[in-house]
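R.M. (postdoc): so does anyone remember the format we settled on? I'll just put the structure tokens first.
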């Protein structure tokens, strides 16, 4: 696959227009120490719209653009995120048995891409990620996904716990993959409408989110290494659902 470039916008006014037009923004990079009336307007706007931002050294800004960028560079998402509230009714209307992946605090873009690749191959209908503490759709994640991120809906939500409660009201069973579980992943009933939660390799699934799960399951670890790579574990989970449903 050809290497893709991250789409970027440069300057304060260009960024403000992108935010106002609700363009899919990954992150706004702001030069540390930036001041002025126009900057204050931008900062108020991105906080109002809950756009992710980061203060970075001037060298970082210069490495991305040598021209008149006004100390602001905006990274644009290469793929539009979708709304889970629109995706779920569409799945139901098509008569499909929901199989959804929820990724909690998975920040590595290559793991994200690998998970998306397995998910698309297994017929997962959507991937849900939080706005914060999550890998983004970048050229690297798209490349690792072998293009799967162009095909599978990715939904960003402000609060995973609120979203999970909403899924449960829709009759979707929540299954959490965690080393804290007692039953193996092959023992859970994945033939039902299911959303599988995968957590990061270092911290796992947030406790408050874990408590909302209807089932907690684990992949058996028989060797000395304590855990599998999360993309491998996610593949096992979704393909166990495929096995059971077939």
């Amino acid at each position: 696959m050809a290497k893709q470039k991250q789409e970027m916008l440069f300057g304060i006014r260009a960024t403000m227009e992108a935010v106002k037009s609700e363009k899919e923004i990954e992150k706004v990079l702001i030069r540390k120490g930036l001041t002025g009336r126009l900057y204050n307007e931008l900062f108020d706007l991105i906080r109002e719209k809950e756009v992710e931002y980061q203060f970075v050294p001037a060298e970082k800004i210069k490495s991305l653009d040598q021209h008149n960028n006004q100390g602001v560079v905006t990274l644009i998402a290469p793929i539009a995120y979708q709304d889970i509230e629109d995706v779920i009714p569409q799945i139901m209307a098509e008569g499909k048995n929901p199989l959804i992946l929820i990724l909690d605090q998975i920040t590595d873009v290559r793991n994200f891409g690998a998970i998306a690749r397995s998910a698309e191959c297994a017929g997962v209908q959507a991937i849900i990620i939080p706005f914060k503490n999550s890998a983004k759709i970048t050229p690297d994640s798209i490349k690792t996904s072998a293009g799967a991120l162009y095909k599978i809906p990715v939904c960003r939500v402000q609060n995973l716990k609120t979203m999970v409660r909403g899924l449960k009201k829709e009759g979707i069973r929540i299954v959490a993959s965690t080393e804290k579980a007692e039953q193996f992943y092959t023992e859970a009933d994945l033939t039902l409408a299911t959303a599988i939660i995968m957590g990061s390799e270092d911290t796992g699934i947030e406790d408050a989110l874990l408590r909302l799960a209807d089932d907690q399951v684990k992949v058996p670890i028989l060797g000395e290494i304590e855990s599998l790579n999360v993309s491998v574990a996610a593949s096992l989970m979704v393909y166990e659902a495929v096995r059971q449903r077939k």
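R.M.: ...and that's the designed sequence above, right after the tokens. Also worth knowing: The chain has nine helices and eleven strands. The longest helix spans residues 230-245.
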